[in-house]
Amino acid sequence: MINAAFGYIALSIFMNFILYLIGMSCIHASFANPVQRKSKKVALLVGLVLWQIYILIIGNSGILQDFSLPPRVLIFLVIPVFLFTAVFLVLNRHKAWIHNIPPHWLIFYQTFRIAIETLFVFSVAKGILPELVTIKGYNFDMIFACTAPILGYYVVKQKANYRSLALIWNYLGLAVIASIIFLFVTAIYFPQLYGGETSLFPKEFGLYPYPLVPGFLMPSAVFIHVLSILQLQKG
What is the mean predicted confidence (pLDDT) over 159-187? Predict the structure, then answer.
């Protein structure tokens, strides 16, 4: 059986590597000055590493094992990274570098969610997640993620006629993520909706590496969706 804990760490390392490669390509295409290129690369690498260190510290502190209100996961992980996404993309929405990323890369990126949902299923077997937040319950993210390579291939082939379809797909992806967040939040804080009296998640879910899901993996999917939308809207 797959070791779910190791799987989350391995997937996070791999997706950080993919994000860094995308960033490197974008920097090379957008900045001609070698000094500026170097500073951008360092900033990107430091930013990715520091956020992972922060998740590691918070995930091992025990803070996230407290499932009382207000929700610690939202306060310490989700809200900060969503605020960064909003501020960063608003400030950069008119920058040329956004258009130096091949649009199909941003679509293919979402394929990694197949791996997340697979890990969710193995996490149920370990008692880390309730079945209702997986594809066996009300989480249909795996189905959506399976469309990413199909749409990505279409974008590669249909260079002039893909924007409307890709925009709809990105908005649908954000809606799917919103439904998953709703599932997790209600299962943790409002288990009565599902016939439970206490949180459907064990305290272990608040320990590293599981905070990688709300702290990095899910927000990275949101970030790439919004970045893709900005790129498609600006043409």
Answer: 94
Tally: H helices and E strands in the chain: 11, 0
Alpha-carbon dihedral 155, 160, 162, 163, rounded to 10 degrees: 120
For every residue of 46-94, DSSP letters joined together read: HHHHHHHHHHHHHHHHSGGG--SSSPHHIIIIIHHHHHHHHHHHHHHTT
Q: Which amino acid is it at 34?
A: P
Give which of 126, 119, 117 is closest to 177, Cα–Cα.
117
Q: What is the CA radius of gyration of the chain?
A: 18
pLDDT band at 36 (very low <50, low <70, confident <90, very high): very high
Percent of the chain at pLDDT exceeding 90: 91
pTM over 0.85: yes
In sequence order, the 6+-apart residues with CB closer than 8 A to the CB of 143 are: 135
